[in-house]
């Protein structure tokens, strides 16, 4: 996938009956937010159910997955959308929220969905 700017569209991957975007590290605002690209020291290889219901907002791969899922849910396709979701995810209002379902509804509320 080529480098995108705010006005470009993500390329789309075609699945069974829906389209999905592919969000990569290069789409994040790494100058604004700091991410690790490996598991935190306290994380095991796979934390099971907790990895599915919680989001560690300083782990880049978890943030990417959250953003990509949110974009697919709402049919969003631009780098600008990535940045809006990322900003909402890191907003003071959601600073203590880690549960995925509450983060989704919190980001939806902040973005007006």
Explain what the structure shows:
The chain has four helices and two strands; from the N terminus they run E-E-H-H-H-H. With 113 residues, the protein is mostly helical. Helix 2 (60-74) packs across helix 3 and helix 3 packs across helix 4 (100-111). The model is unreliable at 1-19 (pLDDT under 50).
In terms of DSSP E residues, the strand content is 5-15%
End-to-end Cα distance, whole Å, is 28 Å
**Spatial extent as radius of gyration:** 14 Å
Strand arrangement within the widest β-sheet reads 1-2
- Total count of helical runs of at least 4 residues: 4
The outline comes out as globular
Q: Residue ranges: pLDDT <50 for 5 or more in a row?
A: 1-19
How many E-type strands? 2
Major pleated sheet: 2 strands, antiparallel
Counting helices, strands and paired strands, the structural category is: mainly alpha
- What is the helix content? 25-40%
Tell me, rounded to a whole number, the average pLDDT: 80
Q: What are the secondary-structure elements, in order, as H or E?
A: EEHHHH
List keywords for this structure.
4 helices; 5% strand; 113 residues
Brief characterization of the structure:
This protein is mainly α. It has four helices and two strands; from the N terminus they run E-E-H-H-H-H.
Layout of SSEs?
Elements: E1 12-14, E2 19-21, H1 49-53, H2 60-74, H3 79-89, H4 100-111
Antiparallel strand pairs: 1-2
Helix pairs in contact: 2-3, 3-4
